[in-house]
Specification:
alpha+beta; STM4215-like; six-stranded mixed sheet; 2 helices; elongated
Length: 131
């Protein structure tokens, strides 16, 4: 399996397990329908840069995750979900074919005015080195 897809799938499954029956939805590939309750997590994009050696493929993968909330006064909720996601990402050290070393994640929380209702959007970019 492609390294970035293997990581993407591992993070997606871990998030779905963590947020099962909590009211926080987890989505990937396409954004959820308009009537989806907030807050929710969206696995946005994943990039990879790799190099083949004699024995293995090594490289770096970056995964972008977004958290949306429709209550702009609940920044702490968004921050807490981002912290949970980082902890889940830190816990992924191995998948079926690769070893992962999470690098320094970056996050920000910003207003989102793309809808009629003001939203909060948390953006988390997690980088990994893999072998």
């Amino acid at each position: 399996m492609d390294p970035q897809q293997e990581l993407f799938s591992a993070v997606l499954m871990a998030l779905k397990e963590k947020y099962k029956d909590t009211g926080v939805g987890v989505y990937d590939t396409i954004l959820p329908p308009k009537d989806t309750p907030y807050p929710f997590i969206y696995l946005a994009d994943c990039s990879e840069s790799d190099q083949a050696t004699k024995n293995e493929i090594i490289g770096e993968t970056n995964l972008t995750l977004k958290v949306w909330h429709d209550n702009i006064r609940q920044r702490g909720t968004v921050s807490g979900i981002l912290a949970d996601i980082k902890n889940i990402c830190r816990s992924i050290e191995h998948t079926a074919h690769y070893a992962w070393n999470m690098q320094r994640p970056t996050q920000r929380i910003l207003p989102d005015n793309t809808t009629k209702q003001p939203l909060l959007m948390g953006v988390l970019v997690v980088g990994y080195k893999f072998s």
